[in-house]
Amino acid sequence: MQIVYEDNHIIIVSKKSGEIVQGDKTGDTPLSELVKQYLKEKYQKPGNVFLGVAHRLDRPVSGLVVFAKTSKALTRLNKMFAEGQVHKTYWAIVAAQQEVAPSGMLTHWLVRNEQQNKSYAYDHEVPRSKKAQLRYQIIGHGDRYLLVEVELLTGRHHQIRCQLAANGMPIKGDLKYGAKRSNPDGSISLLARHIAFIHPVSGEQIRIEAPLPDDPLWEALAKNPR
């Protein structure tokens, strides 16, 4: 577990792909429990430790996750996330299956299929759809892959994965959304890279950057700007 920021009210962890943020039907130990155990041992706290989950990342995604150490911070963080006051930037390694613009805004209407745990993108409004928007910019390139920076303007189920794929840029390793092969470790090449917000208690500006995954391709693309 890699902690990248901690104070009296919040703790930010750089999640590895494969880790789950909260418990699910798999029964695997979630990141939230690992953080609780860390806090219990570090501060020698008897009994239960409070830890609030303010947002989540999909299991195969890596990067920054913010937890609240106090109920005051959790209440305010929940409101900030809901109102779009937390600014998140993602990096993704994609396979360009067609000629794409170096930057732009994507708008789709997404329909979520609960049984498949998958979203489908349409270029017009359809029944049960929700409008999804993001901005992207190509920031690195290689022989077979591009490095794309993404800013979410809405928060929909699998939004980045679904919208990039619909634009001819499936994320490396993401079989569910059109990648041709999986990554050896089961991850998809999507990273919650930056997060910026006003601290919910102190009012200070917080800006955090996640380290790149331990993979030479990330390093190579990051060093080869377009």
The separation of the N and C termini measures: 33 Å
How helix-rich are the residues, as a percent range? 10-25%
Largest sheet: 11 strands, mixed
Q: What is the residue-averaged pLDDT?
A: 94
What is the SS-derived class? alpha+beta
| Overall outline | globular
Q: If you compute it from the alpha carbons, what radius of gyration comes out, rounded to the nearest whole angstrom? A: 18 Å
Topology:
Layout: E1 2-6, E2 10-15, H1 31-42, E3 52-53, E4 62-68, H2 71-82, E5 87-94, E6 103-113, E7 118-122, E8 130-141, E9 146-152, H3 159-166, E10 190-198, E11 205-209, H4 216-222
Parallel strand pairs: 4-10
Antiparallel strand pairs: 1-2, 2-4, 3-4, 5-9, 5-10, 6-7, 6-8, 8-9, 10-11
Give your account of this protein's structure.
- It is a single chain.
- This protein is α+β, with helices and mostly antiparallel strands and 226 residues long.
- The chain is built from 4 helices and 11 strands, in the order E-E-H-E-E-H-E-E-E-E-E-H-E-E-H.
- It starts with a strand and ends with a helix.
Give a quick summary of the entry.
Helix content is about 15%, strand content about 35%. The protein has about 230 residues and is of the alpha+beta class.
